[in-house]
Amino acid sequence: xxxxxxxxxxxxxxxxxxxxxxxxxxxxxxxxxxxxxxxxxxxxxxxxxxxxxxxxxxxxxxxxxxxxxxxxxxxxxxxxxxxxxxxxxxxxxxxxxxxxxxxxxxxxxxxxxxxxxxxxxxxxxxxxxxxxxxxxxxxxxxxxxxxxxxxxxxxxxxxxxxxxxxxxxxxxxxxxxxxxxxxxxxxxxxxxxxxxxxxxxxxxxxxxxxxxxxxxxxxxxxxxxxxxxxxxxxxxxxxxxxxxxxxxxxxxxxxxxxxxxxxxxxxxxxxxxxxxxxxxxxxxxxxxxxxxxxxxxxxxxxxxxxxxxxxxxxxxxxxxxxxxxxxxxxxxxxxxxxxx
Amino acid sequence: xxxxxxxxxxxxxxxxxxxxxxxxxxxxxxxxxxxxxxxxxxxxxxxxxxxxxxxxxxxxxxxxxxxxxxxxxxxxxxxxxxxxxxxxxxxxxxxxxxxxxxxxxxxxxxxxxxxxxxxxxxxxxxxxxxxxxxxxxxxxxxxxxxxxxxxxxxxxxxxxxxxxxxxxxxxxxxxxxxxxxxxxxxxxxxxxxxxxxxxxxxxxxxxxxxxxxxxxxxxxxxxxxxxxxxxxxxxxxxxxxxxxxxxxxxxxxxxxxxxxxxxxxxxxxxxxxxxxxxxxxxxxxxxxxxxxxxxxxxxxxxxxxxxxxxxxxxxxxxxxxxxxxxxxxxxxxxxxxxxx
Amino acid sequence: xxxxxxxxxxxxxxxxxxxxxxxxxxxxxxxxxxxxxxxxxxxxxxxxxxxxxxxxxxxxxxxxxxxxxxxxxxxxxxxxxxxxxxxxxxxxxxxxxxxxxxxxxxxxxxxxxxxxxxxxxxxxxxxxxxxxxxxxxxxxxxxxxxxxxxxxxxxxxxxxxxxxxxxxxxxxxxxxxxxxxxxxxxxxxxxxxxxxxxxxxxxxxxxxxxxxxxxxxxxxxxxxxxxxxxxxxxxxxxxxxxxxxxxxxxxxxxxxxxxxxxxxxxxxxxxxxxxxxxxxxxxxxxxxxxxxxxxxxxxxxxxxxxxxxxxxxxxxxxxxxxxxxxxxxxxxxxxxxxxx
Lengths: 340, 340, 340
Hints:
Strand order of the largest sheet of chain A: 6-9-12-15-18-23-26-29-32-35-37
Oligomer: homotrimer
Strand content of chain A: 25-35%
Radius of gyration of chain A: 26 Å
CATH class of one domain in chain A: Alpha Beta
CATH superfamily of one domain in chain A: MurE/MurF, N-terminal domain
């Protein structure tokens, strides 16, 4: 952390929050409500942490109106304390500002074009006809193939691969190990051998998207694989060819979406969930962790599959019965019914 | 896309297809049946897209005999339209032909051997005693360790790692981020601490295999981990040490196979499926997405596990009952039975 | 393999094992009990391989006392044959010893510090204020960002990324493609758009940990993400921000742990298992493969979820019934009960 500090009234004004309590010292960092010391900003959003409020020693706590009375230190009142915290914490995020220019060890094709204000780090390779626009940052070890575009203000943190025909909008962030534009899994069985179906499309990523570490997004077979604006993908997600993901949808780690599936806007997909190919999910669908979606969903709402965790001893008994559940149900139908 | 174009009679002859309708203009690319314009090749394989046929404006449609009558434009009759499309689309796949030679930024060990016809891209590292054979292409950022062989005509797209003792057959394609030959997860508990079991084997990949982006294949503990010929692995698959996969088997994304399991030929493993270690799966087994295989399978056929997706409200009620399914079944056995 | 060989009495003495049978020739490698030839060391730990013992042609077999009588060749008696094998096999593991120094193609920031006894391989990048301690090995293609520490004796095999504020203890091994210290998935919805919650913490990895290929460990939001000593993670595991994993816990491939979850010591997590965020798992918990843990666990023991693998035909019938399991249970409650 570096030595930036802020007075509480300054924070209140800057972010439109109400300050309660007598502001004594400036703050210079953030901490959890449980461990914060004076000089640190904490927040209370999740009610399960409310128990720590009476003892907190934070310099200031960002919280909802109704929690202000129990706060022993100054507080900033926010309708959404987590959002306010996100904005204030950003003040303390000492992100290094890379200087524009191309590192001497980078290998840039003659037909590629890199904006003067962009920063290309060490050991980067950029292929034919690719373009890096204003203010974009290409971190160490990235590989950009042919015919790609990295939009203005994008950041490829490190060791990202854009294979071919990948176009990133503005301010897209891609984390290390992500691979965009690899060949989709297009195969046809021909006389006992697999033959490859050429993958002639690309990948189109909207403004403000974020792609997690080691996530893979295949390029389209004929048309493009598309992420609309502000889509947020966590780590180790797999997006098949020709998938389309609506704006503002977010997916937790290890989700897998098979080819040609279309997902709506403002969906939330839990970690490890899967979707088969060629289905459509409407807007505002929430899928819980490790569920498998095998058909289209046309009603907003929350969906699940799987069974609950139990001791293996109990689980084994129940699982054995699951194998014969249909028989059991048929048997029940044959039992004498209650009389009225 | 580049400017290659083909006359329809030329395509018909080249791929042994029957041309129906009066061929007017040449074609210069591919498109979906829904969006194709004149000058583009479309295909109809999946019956659910048949509804788009009467309105298609494609230059030509590849389809089955029985669909020809409904086609408003010229068509090419194929027994398997998807296979025919794959072959025709390949004509339009403008794959850059890398020139042979070793890029100046690559670091190649003195004891390594690279064929004169192979192409080694920028920022590649090749370790001691490794061999790159005729016509192989090693894309930017790949790391090849010690004692590896990259067979003739292989393509390592970019940022692939072969750790040690990895031997690729001919025409193997490996996508970015894949890691072959890492140490398997061999551990033994010794007096409260884990100790490492040395992983002395390698990885052997047959001809014409394909390995997806960010897929990992561990090297064997004593003998090799083996993929026979024409095995196709999608992205983010994990193959444990000493697994053996039979020829022509294909796996969709995110499959995980634990150590020493043996899988037969012509199997199809759905996305996100898993297999425990030390089991045997016979030829021609199909596993549906996200199923877990916990025992050997000796009969060809299709296998599944899991529960169907439902609204979370319904699911929670059913899942709560699953936790007591054995009790329920026992209770049913005590109920009065129907009399004949 | 290189030409090291060992006399059997020498092995017995070195590892405190009893040698039975007349030791004739030295051994120079390891093999499975089924395939070993004279001159090779085999072992028998798993009873299901006992059938191969009478026919083995190994130079020596490491086994338990009770199997000695059935062994046709010399044997070394061990309480835990797998542990003894691990130690003996290490003698034959010809790990290349990289020479200290920084490869000419590596790019090291002026403010970074690399110990004279450390080895930094080709095409490595090391950022500002990072430290590589005594005897550490940084393999080809690794990217180390800002403010990281690689402890004494660590090994980053190849193409590993440490993003920022990652501190590795001593003798930590990290396999290719792993990404430590990427931004956690911290998002808040603000007026219909996602905003980023800054991730100001780091990653702290204890001594003797091992991190598998393509595994990702996010840095903490406020405090650190922590692995205590001797934690062993297999490939393609995802560890969310602020997770804490207790000493000696091991996880098989493709496990995913969501943010802020705390896991105890000596836990074993099966392949593909998942845990939701903000829960606590006590010591000595075993989770079977592909189970989802949705609540805290406070009792040591084995836990499972899911349903057994079946033919899809049977599975579909049972799965259809699962969707109405609650109704079925309610119906049973209405049936006439048995009279005493």
